Amino acid sequence: MSTPTLVETPVLSLEQILEKMMGRKIAEAMSNKSSRQQSMVLEEYSFSLEVMAVPLPQDFKQPKMEKYDGSSDPVDHPMSFVDLMRLQATPDAIMCRVFSANA
Q1: What is the rounded radius of gyration, in angstroms, for the C-alpha atoms of the chain?
Q2: Is the separation of the CB atoms in 22 and 45 below 8 Å?
Q3: Is there a domain that residue 1 lies in?
Q4: So which domain of life are we looking at (predicted)?
Q5: By C-alpha distance, which of 22, 26, 15 is closest to 50?
Q6: pLDDT of residue 59
Q7: What is the pLDDT of residues 40-94, one digit of tens each?
Q8: CA angle 93-88-63, nearest 5°?
Q9: What angle do CA 29, 31, 34 make, to 5 degrees?
Q10: Same domain, yes or no: 64 and 97
């Protein structure tokens, strides 16, 4: 009677899995697109995989802030945003994504 052999399958990290998934998603979006459309797809993924991999907390509430209009200190605006986000204990990666969506 022979002993069954174990087949070793490579274990991928979450980061590797996300990288493969994002690569497929980008490749799908890029196929059959004009160069203008391709540049729009690439702009959609402007953050690193590490930033994109951080899930949005379930109880996350986006802070209500007016867009910066240039009439006040340019440092005060992002600092106010960070202060509001810190009240919710928001991870830095989420702050990056949310701030860019509000900028």
Answers
A1: 21
A2: yes
A3: no
A4: Eukaryota
A5: 15
A6: 86
A7: 555 566 777 777 778 888 888 888 888 888 898 888 888 888 999 999 888 888 8
A8: 80
A9: 95
A10: yes
Q: Residue 62: CA atoms inside 13 Å, Cβ hemisphere, count?
A: 11
Distance from C-alpha of 60 to C-alpha of 90, rounded to nearest angstrom: 8
Domain interval for residue 59: 55-103
Same domain, 100 and 59: yes
Pairwise CA distance, residues 65 & 80, whole Å: 9
Contacts of 81 (CB under 8 A, 6+ apart): 63, 65, 95, 99, 102
Q: Are residues 62 and 76 in the same domain?
A: yes
- In eight-state DSSP terms, residue 2 is P
Q: What residue has token string 């059959």? A: 32
**Ramachandran quadrant class, 55 (left: phi over 0; alpha: psi -120 to 50; beta: rest):** beta
How many Å apart are CA 17 and CA 10, to the nearest integer? 12
Q: What is the pLDDT of residues 9-31, one digit of tens each?
A: 677 676 666 667 766 766 666 56
